[in-house]
Amino acid sequence: MYDCIIIGAGIAGAVAARKLAEEKGKQVLVLERRNHIGGNCYDERDEHGILIHNYGPHIFHTGMEDVFAYLSRFTEWHLFGHEVAAKVADGLIPVPFNLNTLEMVYGEKAGQLGKKLADTYGEGSRVPIMKLRESGDPDIREIAQYVYENIFLQYTMKQWGQKPEEISPEVTGRVPVLISRDNRYFQDKYQGVPKDGFTAMFERMLAHERITVRCGVDCRESLAFREDGIWFEGQPFEGDVIYTGALDELFDCRFGRLPYRSLDFRFEHYDTESYQGRSVVNYTVSEDFTRITEFKFLTGQQDADGTTIVKEYPFAYSGAEGEIPYYAILNDENEALYERYRGLVKGLERFHLLGRLAEYRYYNIDAMVKKAFELTEQM
Ligand code: FAD
Ligand code: UDP
Which of 11, 194, 229, 363 gives 201 a disulfide partner, CB atoms 3.0 to 4.6 angstroms apart? Predict the structure, then answer.
């Protein structure tokens, strides 16, 4: 019946499904455990009619023309330059820390300090905080210390339960110090959200005569791994299987759980025009939550009555019912554990791991789309 089975209807699974059905003529079955498609990009209107992102705020951003063109087949866009401010000492300063932030913090001295930064690292460059801290110059070290203490230390402690120097530099490197006056959070050419939401984009992508989607189905009920290969619904399955879920779960966590950070999203609705007047404020020195997102300023929704916000409270994922593993914790020990699980499926030629969970990596949406292109082209 089916040539391919894809587990997970997030961006990785949805792009792979569409590619295989449309370009390779495959009959594709998508199994999704949740009762909806879209994975963590899923959005819907809340009880007040406001479009919210149920699994945290998602802004699509990319510099990859092929990725943007592909998704644009399934949606129009509400494009903007995404800006984030950090709440520091009762005021708001732009993040990433840039030459505008420098001026707000250092006043008159900023001109000379900015010149020093530009001379040292190059105008327009992106300097990771951990690199800035290594500088031998006392002025630069002072700026680095300010940024470390006011932008990174508390936020990272909340998000990861560890200090910036204890986590992978890849993670803090996502938000570098910018030697420019660009106030945007990302520097990609395209940034925004699908005009009528992510879920509508996924619906169009998965609407194809050779794609069948079954929601509310955990693949472990029907898929089994045996010495002689993969079995589906009690029969040997000869086709390709793409798995986008967590790899340890597929094997009942037999070597122990892969560690993840999770988030508790607390939504609040207010009958006022605006709560914070902008889409995202990071709480980098105070509060127990990391950031507040006010959705109408992200989605551009015009017909909203009142406003809905979400606060994000990080915690260590334990695998308990209802918890969601959001962030792989990248370090040597965890990657070695992941490799042990990967060893269990290495011999299965037609079994493919794709996605943020299945690959135990930190991917943005665009990188995921690109990986789905690459995998389906090889298949
Ligand atoms: P997912 O979206 O997690 O999809 C995997 C799917 O597989 C899920 O729907 C799951 O239910 C299903 N599944 C798992 N196990 C099974 C099973 N056993 N049987 C059946 N189905 C199963 N990226 C950006 O580019 N911009 C952003 O602004 C951004 N913000 C983010 C904010 C947060 C809080 C988080 C956590 C991530 C953010 N990301 C962002 C990253 C983005 O969410 C991911 O790149 C993307 O969702 C990964 O897609 P995926 O398909 O790999 O995984
Ligand atoms: N970060 C921080 N303060 C900020 C923004 C980010 O300390 O104001 C650190 C934090 O460790 C975070 C990492 O930089 O986990 C990456 O931030 P990003 O916004 O890329 O994380 P995302 O929410 O997209 O996963």
Answer: 194
